[in-house]
User: Which sequence fits this backbone?
């Protein structure tokens, strides 16, 4: 019986350092991946189906003829792309009354109306996070 207990104790003693050394790299890899996952989550935004109608209603009712979009010559935007040159001069802020009805914009991101699109963007990088055609 003593031999059996001794063998069991030695086996457990050998297995424990192996399991610890195996778990350590996995835990380290998870810790390294977490900031990247959190950062990706911060840059994620999705318009809802009803948001298009709300934004379209606001901009069609409140823009003057000179502000209307030339559908034959407008640029098409996609998430992940850079905003076009001169975008700051053409971007219109989304009014607070409309913002109340939209999902919250992630910290560090902004939303605006640009050439017939509602654009959620990273102003520091000048990159589009989400875009919705509202024209």
Assistant:
């Amino acid at each position: 019986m003593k031999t059996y207990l001794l063998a069991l104790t030695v086996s457990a003693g050998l297995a424990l350092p192996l399991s610890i050394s195996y778990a350590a790299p996995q835990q380290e890899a998870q810790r390294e991946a977490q900031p990247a996952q959190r950062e990706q989550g911060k840059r994620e935004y999705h318009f809802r189906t009803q948001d298009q109608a709300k934004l379209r209603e606001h901009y069609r009712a409140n823009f003057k003829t000179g502000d209307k979009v030339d559908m034959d010559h407008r640029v098409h935007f996609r998430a992940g792309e850079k905003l076009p040159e001169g975008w700051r001069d053409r971007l219109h802020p989304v009014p607070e009354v409309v913002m109340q009805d939209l999902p919250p914009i992630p910290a560090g991101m902004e939303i605006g109306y640009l050439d017939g699109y509602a654009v959620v963007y990273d102003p520091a990088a000048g990159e589009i996070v989400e875009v919705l055609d509202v024209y």
In short: The first strand starts at residue 92 and ends at 93. The longest helix spans residues 2-42. The chain is about 45% helix and 15% strand.
